[in-house]
Amino acid sequence: MSEQKIALVTGANKGIGFEIAAGLGALGWSVGVGARDTGRGEAAVDKLRAGGADAFAVPLDVTDDASVTAAAALIEERHGRLDVLVNNAGVTGGMPQNPTTVGIATLRTAVETNVIGVIRVTNAMLPLLRRSPSPRIVNMSSTVGSLTHQTSAAGPETTGPLSAAYSPSKSFLNAVTIQYAKELHGTGILINAACPGYVATDLNGFSGFRTPEQGAAIALHLATLPDNGPSGGFFDDAGPIPW
Ligand SMILES: NC(=O)c1ccc[n+]([C@@H]2O[C@H](COP(=O)([O-])OP(=O)(O)OC[C@H]3O[C@@H](n4cnc5c(N)ncnc54)[C@H](OP(=O)(O)O)[C@@H]3O)[C@@H](O)[C@H]2O)c1
């Protein structure tokens, strides 16, 4: 087995995902740049390669079965295994999202991408991850999905405006992460949820106050956990986040 680690980052053509790919590339890893738009994916790969990273394009729409199956086949053919999967692709579904008026399409988009997409990609990549000596899965969640934060006195400061689709989709993702950790316990696969903080990206109209590079740090940490590292947790740069 080659020494070089192999990673796949979904939604890596921009924002936090791009910086996660850049960070893993800087470690000398071979990084699959998942992107639903081939042109945007290839542009990101060019940029990462210009920065010295060993990056390759992986056309990947997390909401599309055939696309995800093809992405797994591409990685199998190219590398025969996968060491790290970062489920980063995500959408808000569009704002505002008051529960009394939210569109069903908005709900479906958020859950289809942020939850079902993660399950679809994870299950397609698991056979490749099982061939790694130290497989890691990182699910990009958000503190806005923390029920504890949503119901605390400081809630509005940490969980933002009403969000009937995006926030619950991240709570759902957190719950799913716990279920995976239970099933995968003892296999060597470590799976955790991460919050990047409030980061200036397209997702929030660049209103965040952290840089995408800062947002990528927790994912890089969880992608490179030692074998005795945690699984089934929810973390940001400061440590565990309450569910
Ligand atoms: N920014 C924040 O403050 C913040 C805070 C907490 C958590 N997060 C989470 O961090 C992750 C990255 O967000 P970001 O802020 O970097 O957002 P972003 O700049 O909008 O990037 C989102 C990425 O996901 C991709 N994507 C969306 N739908 C997809 C699909 N169906 N299939 C494949 N890729 C898809 C986008 O591709 P296109 O370019 O094709 O649209 C883009 O590459 C998300 O999971 C988000 O929920 C962000």
From TrEMBL:
Pfam families per record: adh_short
Record keyword Cell membrane present: no
Entry-linked InterPro entries: CBR1-like, NAD(P)-bd_dom_sf, SDR_fam
Coiled-coil zones: none
Keywords: NADP, Oxidoreductase
Family of this protein: Belongs to the short-chain dehydrogenases/reductases (SDR) family.
PANTHER family for this protein: (+)-NEOMENTHOL DEHYDROGENASE (PTHR43490), SHORT-CHAIN DEHYDROGENASE_REDUCTASE (PTHR43490:SF99)
Name by which UniProt lists this protein: SDR family oxidoreductase
